[in-house]
Amino acid sequence: MSDVATNEWHQREIDTAKGLLEGVHAAIQQGNIHAADGEVDEALVVLDMARAEGITDQQRELRARALNEKGLILQQRGETADAYDAHRQAADLVDSVDSIDDDNLGSAAAIHLNFGQLSLLDDDYTTAARENRRALELIESLREIDENNALSLAMGAFQNMTALESFRGNFDKAAEHAEEAIDTANTIAERGGTFAISTAAQVCQQLSVQLFQNQQIDGAVEWGQRAESLSERAFNEAGPEALDAYVVSEINLISFHESARRYADAEDCLWKAMDVSNNDPEVIRRGLNFYENCRKQTDARLEKGGLPRDEVDEAYEELKEIALQKGVIQQG
C-alpha cells in the first residue's frame, strides 16, 4: 500500500473512532449503557488497528477518551476495580501527549477529574489531590477558549477538592474550595445554567456532614445553613428536580440543631421539610424520632432550646395524626 493510501486509511480509522466515541457519549447521556459499551469496545478495536501505522498524539487522546468512557460505564455497573484501572490508564495516556490541542483540553480535564473522584472514593487522597490539581491546570487553559465548559468542569474540581480536604480534616482549606464552588455556581447561574446552584448546595452539604462527624457542630450548622439557602434557591429556580437536595439540607439541619440542643431551630427545619416534601414518609419518620427524643429531655433543657414541653407534646400528636393518614404508623 502506498504512503498516500496508508495515510488515507489511517485517517479513516481515526474518523471512525471519533464517530463511535460521539455515539458513546450520547448513549451514556441517554442511559443506554449496553449500546455505549458496545460502541466504546468497537472504538478501542479501531484504535488498536490504527496503531499499526504508528502511535500519534491524536491516537493517545482518542484512546484516553475511550478508556474514560469505558470507566464511566464500568462504574455504573458497579465494577469499581475495573473502572479504576480504566480511568488510571486514561489519565496516564492523556498525560503522555506532548501537547494537548485546544479541542481536547475539556476532555483531558474531565479524564483527570474522573480519575481524581474515583481515587477519592478509594481513599487514595494522594492520587486524588494530584489528579484534581492537574484538572484545574487544564481548566485554567480551557477558560481562554471555552469559558462555559471550563466553569462546568471547575465545579466538579472544587467539589472534589472540598471533599478531599474535609476527609483529610483540613476544614479551612475545604471551606476555601467550597467558597470557590459557590462563586463558580453563581457565575454559571448568571449565564443560564440550571444545575450549578444545586451542585453548590451539595458541596456545602458534604462539608457540613464532615464537620458534624468531627464534632464541629457550629461549623456544621453554618455550612448546613449555606446548603439550605442554596438548595432553596435551586428549588425555587429549577423546581422539583432540586427538591431532594432541599429536603436533605433540612434533614441534616435537624440533626445539627438537635445535637446543639437548639430544639426550636430543629423543629423549624422539620416542618419546612414536611411542607416542601408534601409530608414524605421518610421525613415523617425523622420527625417522630425528633419529638420522641425531645420528650426524653428535661423541662429545663427544652426551655433552654426554645421548645417547651407542651409545644413538643402538641406537635408530636399533630405529627402522629399525619403519620396515621400516610400509613407510616398504625392505629393502636
Describe the structure.
This protein is 81% helix and 0% strand. The chain has 332 residues and is mostly helical. Residues 1-6 have low confidence and may be disordered.
Strand-helix topology:
Blueprint: H1 3-29, H2 33-50, H3 57-76, H4 80-95, H5 105-121, H6 125-142, H7 147-168, H8 171-190, H9 196-213, H10 217-238, H11 243-259, H12 263-276, H13 281-295, H14 299-304, H15 309-326
Helix pairs in contact: 1-2, 1-3, 2-3, 3-4, 3-5, 4-5, 5-6, 5-7, 6-7, 7-8, 7-9, 8-9, 9-10, 9-11, 10-11, 11-12, 12-13, 13-15
What's this, in brief?
This protein has 332 residues and is mainly α. It has helices spanning 3-29, 33-50, 57-76, 80-95, 105-121, 125-142, 147-168, 171-190, 196-213, 217-238, 243-259, 263-276, 281-295, 299-304, 309-326. The longest helix has 27 residues, at 3-29.
What attributes characterize this protein structure?
15 helices, mainly alpha, elongated, 332 residues, disordered N terminus
The DSSP helix count reads: 15
Rg (CA only)? 25 Å
According to DSSP, the number of beta strands is: 0
Instruction: Work out the helicity level.
Output: over 70%
What's the end-to-end separation, in Å? 87 Å
String of helices and strands:
HHHHHHHHHHHHHHH
Principal-axis shape equals elongated
Helix/strand-derived category reads mainly alpha
Instruction: Describe the sheet with the most strands.
Output: none
Mean pLDDT: 91
